[in-house]
Amino acid sequence: MNALIARLVAKRLGIMLISLLVVAFAVFFATELLPGDVAQILLGQAATPEAVAGLRKSMHLDQPAFLRFLYWLGGLLTGDLGRSYANNREVADLIAGRLANSLELAFVTTLFSVPIALTLGITAAMFRGSTYDRLVLVFTVSVISIPEFMVATLAVMIFAVYLKWLPALSVASDVEGLGELLRIYAMPVITLSFVVSAQMIRMTRAAVIDTLDTAYVEMALLKGASRRRIVLRHALPNALGPIVNAMALSLSYLLGGVIIVETIFNYPGVAKLMVDAVSTRDLPLIQSCAMIFCVSYLLLILIADLVAIMANPRLRNQ
Amino acid sequence: MGNVVEIRDLHVSARTDSGRTVEIIKGVDLNVGAGEMVALIGESGSGKTTIALTLLGHTRTGCSIRKGSVRVAGRDVVAMSGAERRRLRGRQVAYVPQSAAAAFNPSQTIMDQVVEVAKIHQLMPMEEARQKAIGLFRALALPDPETIGLRYPHQVSGGQLQRLAAAMALIADPEVMVFDEPTTALDVTTQIEVLRAFKSVMRERGMAGVYVSHDLAVVAQIADRIVVLKGGEVQEEGATEQIVTAPKHGYTRALIDAFHPRPHEAAATERPGPETPVLEVTNLTAGYGAIGRDGRPEYLALKDVSFRLERGRSLGVIGESGSGKSTLARAIAGLLPPAIGQIRMDGVELGRRTKDRSKEDLRKLQIVFQLADTALNPNRSVGAILSRPLTFYHGTRGRECEAEVDRLLDMVRLPKALKHRLPPELSGGQKQRVNFARALAARPELILCDEITSALDTVVAAAILDLLDELQRELGLTYVFVSHDLSTVEAVCDRVLVMYQGEKVEEMPTSRMKSGAEHPYSKLLIASVPQLDTGWLDGLDRERASPGAEAGR
């Protein structure tokens, strides 16, 4: 059993590496396509052509793109993410603090949204067709259709501007006590939870309904099992695969896709860092951020697949 | 002795998708005495399962008990509250499902599911329940009774799962057992073992039971009394012996007639000269998985099969599931390219894959699949389905095509008006006729029929078989008829080829099938077909059938 899982993980890790390589290639050459010349931008319009040429040479910009790609890849493999073009600081240092912030926000949002999504999804499936189920469905559809900047702006207007309950900005640096922490995180977490949980609720509901229609669930019913037992012991374990996959997809959004929320609440996360990097044409920073998003996405999918395999005895012990 | 089950004037209604309410059970009365086994038989849609499920106070989605009473051990299930019904289920009335393979939860061990009833109703300590389950496994003649419960459902065979489902039902010593077509999904050789196990356990414990089935021969072995249902009403009721030997009602007679197929007569009486056979298969080997160094696939599904088939004849291919009979049909059709061997049609070698074959070769050889439901596009009208091969093979269009569609429908005895309908609006038998007409549209010489009557009710299937026979005479068609059901093969085929574990074990004329089989496996297979004789199962020599348990794995 363990050998099988080890082999599977090894295989998936191999595929992950290949996908990362492809993504690295795509990211590098996509950023190459950005218009403008970095040396020119850095030195300003008054710079002499000699100065620009000198800077280009020192930044290896005069070498062919493919060679620079290989340098960069080699750097990535040895843990050297390069130096920022904009302020000459180590990219790793720039990212480290921001990544911690982003992970913190993602973690709190996950803790908050996953149990709620699971509960709503499962209960909606249990009472399929009831008014409660319809309400949950209408709610999720509206949340999916309302853009997150709308939710975020409304939240700021209501809770920060009118009610003055919560701070409009979320700066996690000066936290004193749990209450303060909750106040700071409340609005971004609520906004993000709205965004990620809608999809999770729908997928959970669909997966559980699928298993509720099976013959083994009817069998459990005919054995006299209660509704609770049927759902928790018979339906849910078999619906786990699709549910965790839907969760992985939703949660992967929490790192790379939260730019709007980070901007509105002025939250210092990686997504905001990346957008700032684009405006300054800070290629090493953009590339590193993109790679981080890709790795986190692939890791989440890998974990989801592993959970799905562990939940299925047919795959678990062959 | 009083009745354990008393159903009085039961009406069950169902709501259709369009919101209409239809009555599917129209006033049924039923008694089951103590220790008695009553069979409910009828075609699909006759309401037999619906009635059986009401004993557990359960109706499937969209259905509800509208009127009447269902008394089990003196208490009316219809009047019970939800909690009372839950207490009844599994403890007083237990259910053995049609497909145990689907009714076992794939993510729990068998033991957990078998003792679950004891756990839900808190009948005994878990350890005691486990010991009891092991005892039941032993009584049901399951292999490794001590450890089989530790396995997961996918790790045991279908026949074993069916017996495990019976153990699951028996764990709480219920007063009534409900069997819902428990052997329909099994091979005949496995079916015997399962039936025998059920019968001995029920007899030993003196339990009352309701046995739902569409197979009269199976029911004749196990039931004391038979209730024949059609359209939600009781047609006839009587002791098993009386129903089988002296049926009164027309529908019952039709059921019994369908069981005795008219023996097939060869289409051409005088033997034509040494003509080239329509189909000649030599040393066909096919399988799945990586191709090894010797050119053989990793998992062989078909090993070195050869046969010849002359024009206007039909060859039956029989064997249990996994014997390679469907693989043979798929290999001949080019759907599964064979690794080794040749397929010749009219003396010309065919390409291994469909894409290597000419349009003319494709036209001459048509395949009809088992499930018309999945073989027919549900969103295209019957007319569109039939005109496609006409246009593709013959370039027929417009008015001419219309006329040809009408002719095809007429050939398969369907009204012309049906061409504007969609497949989901047709009955099972009608769908299978359309499926067959589509093959006819190509004007083929050879038709491969893969279990085409297996999903149909006995009476409907018999009509389809008659049709095949007639068409063969009229059009000079040649059939390869794959089936697990020996009586259907008997009805249409001249020769029979017996498959076992991918090999051809024997080939013989159909007329000699019952008496002249030589290979021990063919003998076992032929002997395992239930006979319409109440004493057949008890009279079977036990030893002769016991290798069936091995073969059924």
UniProtKB/TrEMBL annotation, chain A:
The chain crosses the membrane at residues 12-30, 105-128, 135-162, 182-201, 243-265, 285-311. Pfam families: BPD_transp_1, BPD_transp_1_N. InterPro entries: BPD_transp_1_N, MetI-like, MetI-like_sf. The keyword Cell cycle does not apply. It is found in: Cell membrane. Residues 99-304 form the ABC transmembrane type-1 domain. CDD domains: TM_PBP2 (cd06261). Signal peptide: none annotated. Belongs to the binding-protein-dependent transport system permease family. Keywords: Cell membrane, Membrane, Transmembrane, Transmembrane helix, Transport. PROSITE patterns: ABC_TM1. It is a multi-pass membrane protein. This is ABC transporter permease. SUPFAM superfamilies: MetI-like (SSF161098). GO terms for cellular component: plasma membrane. The keyword Transmembrane applies. One of its GO terms (biological process) is transmembrane transport.
UniProtKB/TrEMBL annotation, chain B:
One of its GO terms (molecular function) is ATP hydrolysis activity. Keywords: ATP-binding, Nucleotide-binding, Transport. The keyword Translocase does not apply. One of its GO terms (cellular component) is plasma membrane. Pfam families: ABC_tran, oligo_HPY. GO terms for biological process: peptide transport; transmembrane transport. The keyword ATP-binding applies. Transmembrane segments: none annotated. It is a peripheral membrane protein. Belongs to the ABC transporter superfamily. PANTHER family: D,D-DIPEPTIDE TRANSPORT ATP-BINDING PROTEIN DDPF-RELATED (PTHR43776:SF7), TRANSPORT ATP-BINDING PROTEIN (PTHR43776). This is ABC transporter ATP-binding protein. It comes from Jiella avicenniae.
